[in-house]
């Protein structure tokens, strides 16, 4: 079985969705047959590359709301994340364009490190408040994920994997993704959102039964 998950590292619900998927797989009796493939998506591709902005300010500007309103809205997400063992720190976080992060995640996938690199970059963005608009930060996080620093710098200085990122995003749109996280299980079950663990287990069961005819 293959579980494809489209996500963006600036998406707090995507990290929550990852944790819930992990818990669902712990309860799924055929988990040993499951391959999880993390795919690229950008929540805001128009955000300037190489620039960072405090999360509250960026969301307030995008939503036409006050910083106080945004702070109140993110409190609920913070509480939900805490239930999954994630300690979000929006007050110190920054919004960035994630295109280069996704290019590095494709490199990591080729090196057999896709899942771990996805975890490292999600944590860097949402928990640690690292500035992923900076090349040196991207190199540090990628190195922590096990990638070779020289190779990471070469990718960042060129255009490697740019088309792969675009193809992932196009694929999500063709499949009707209305947002992320977006899950496709064995190309038979598809849904959006950080669904409860019970829903994920049921979806895994359904796809497994369909696969067995």
TrEMBL record:
GO function terms (MF aspect):
oxidoreductase activity
Show the coiled coil region(s): none
What is a single Pfam family found in this protein's UniProt entry? DSBA
Q: Which InterPro entries match?
A: DSBA-like_thioredoxin_dom, Thioredoxin-like_sf
Q: What residue stretches are annotated with the DSBA-like thioredoxin domain?
A: 2-204
Q: By what name is this protein known?
A: Disulfide bond formation protein DsbA
Organism, per UniProt? Nocardiopsis sinuspersici
């Amino acid at each position: 079985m293959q579980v494809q998950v489209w996500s963006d590292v600036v998406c707090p619900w995507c990290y929550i969705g990852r944790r819930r998927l992990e818990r669902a797989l712990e309860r799924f009796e055929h988990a040993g047959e499951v391959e999880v493939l993390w795919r690229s998506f950008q929540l805001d591709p128009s955000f300037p590359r190489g620039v960072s902005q405090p999360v509250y300010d960026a969301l307030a500007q995008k939503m036409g709301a006050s910083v106080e309103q945004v702070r109140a809205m993110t409190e609920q997400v913070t509480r939900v994340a805490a239930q999954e063992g994630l300690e979000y720190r929006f007050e110190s976080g920054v919004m960035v364009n994630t295109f280069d992060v996704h290019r590095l995640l494709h490199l990591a996938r080729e090196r057999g490190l896709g899942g771990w690199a996805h975890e490292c970059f999600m944590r860097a963005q949402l928990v640690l408040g690292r500035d992923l608009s900076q090349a040196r930060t991207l190199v540090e996080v990628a190195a922590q994920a096990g990638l070779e620093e020289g190779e990471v710098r070469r990718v960042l200085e060129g255009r490697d994997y740019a088309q792969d990122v675009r193809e992932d995003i196009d694929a999500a749109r063709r499949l009707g993704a209305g947002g992320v996280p977006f899950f496709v299980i064995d190309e038979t079950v598809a849904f959006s959102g950080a669904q409860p663990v019970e829903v994920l287990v049921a979806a895994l069961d359904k796809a497994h039964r369909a696969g067995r005819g």
